[in-house]
Amino acid sequence: MTAQPTESPSTVAPPAPAGRQHVRIQPSKGWQVLNLRQLWEFRELLGILVWRDIKVRYKQTVLGAAWAILQPFLTMVVFSIFFGKLAGLGKNLPGHIPYPVWSYCALLPWQLFAYALNESGNSLVANRQLITKVYFPRLVIPLSAVLAGLVDFCIAFAVLLGMMFWYGITPSLFALTTLPLFVFFAIATALSAGLWLSALNVEYRDVRYTIPFLTQFWLFLTPIAYPSTLIPQALRPLYGLNPMAGVVEGFRWALLGSNPPGPMLWVSVGTVTLLLIGGLAYFRRMEKTFADIV
Predict the structure, then answer these.
(1) What letter would DSSP give residue 80?
(2) N or C: which end of the chain has fewer CB within 10 A?
(3) CA 12 – CA 180 distance, rounded (Å)
(4) Nearest residue to 289 via CA among 120, 131, 114
(5) How many Å apart are CA 14 and CA 16, to the nearest integer?
(6) Which positions ≥6 away from 134 have C-beta within 8 Å?
(7) Where are the beta strands (DSSP E) in 7-68?
(8) Is the pLDDT of residue 7 over 50?
């Protein structure tokens, strides 16, 4: 008598007790690289992770949230002395903007980007115990690391408003309407790079050692201590391949009324869009292996 084939035990769910339902978790299908509906379903988890990152950062610290002010402020002081005074870069700024305000305005989005890049790049490895124990969209982890930096940005932004008041610079209504777009642009830039680095960091642990070097190298490629007008006019659109160049120039344009970014901004937008789409696609392809190799 020939035995009848049976289904594999791994595909047959045991009978559920009365009043309970079995939930089968399986990878999403299709070509989409971002499942917004699934992210919305796990919005509470996203909020919990953001709040956890904020509390952990300032837990058992003496100065607490003052670090959000000290980091960009002290960097601004160093830039003002060496680049503004000694190198003479503060003499010919557009609109005769004081160099301390001019550099601090650029340091705000940069600090947001640098923090988000470092935290998101190491986020999957840092949350290995959570990834291996429970299912949730893995995109929540780098996204929460990026959003946690907004608290520091808001604190440091209050100092910028005080500096602008001290130097008699009044933000216009145009700044209030366009500034959120550039903040979103900075977050998208950090997330697009963070997705690539976080997924690569799971498989190649030496990626975490390259992130500080990458951030430092990226700093000097961005017009923070120096104006973008030093770049030849013909090469300035290509300079927009550095997305943070468009972000920084956009901040100065919106808040201080400096020269508009021009074509450089649109090149930066296109670069971030391609990086973000590619990062989401690569992250989704590697997502199914995170729990096995993290």
Answers:
(1) I
(2) N
(3) 50
(4) 131
(5) 6
(6) none
(7) none
(8) no
146, 192 Cβ separation under 8 angstroms: no
CA dist 252 and 261 (Å) reads 9
The model's pTM is 0.83
Residue pair 31/38 in contact (Cβ under 8 Å)? The answer is no
Tokens standing for residue 279: 């990062």
Which tokens belong to 161? Answer: 């408003």
Tell which residue, 115, 175, 172, 125, has the closest CA to residue 147: 115
Per-residue pLDDT tens digits for 101-150? 999 999 999 999 999 999 899 888 888 888 888 888 888 999 999 998 89
Q: Let me know: does 164 contact 171? Beta carbons within 8 Å.
A: yes
d(CA 12, CA 83): 68
Residue partners of 228: CB distance under 8 A and separation at least 6: 236, 239, 245, 249, 264
Instruction: Spell out where 155-271 has E strands.
Output: none
